[in-house]
Amino acid sequence: MTLGGIGGSPLGRSNSMDEAREVMNMARRLAAIVLMEPALNTSYQAMKESCYPWPRS
User: For the whole model, what pTM was predicted?
Assistant: First the structure.
């Protein structure tokens, strides 16, 4: 594996199965957030338009 053009392992050793599994799970969570982006944007716009207009003092 290379990281930023640096050869070899960034840790100086092989990744354990637990570490590899955790990286896989992080990638899955990030992919889920990216896939949710349209729904999150729609929800944000709906909430933004329905906010109470606080009076300015």
Answer: 0.59
CA distance 41 to 14: 40
Cα gap 46→49, rounded to integer Å = 5
Q: Give the list of residues 6+ apart from residue 1 with CB closer than 8 angstroms, or none.
A: 9, 10
DSSP the chain: --BTTB-S-TTSSPPPHHHHHHHHHHHHHHHHHHHHHHHHHHHHHHHHHT---PPP-
Would you say how long the chain is, in residues? 57
Give the model confidence (pLDDT) of 7-57 as tens digits: 667 778 888 899 889 999 999 999 999 999 999 999 999 999 999 988 997
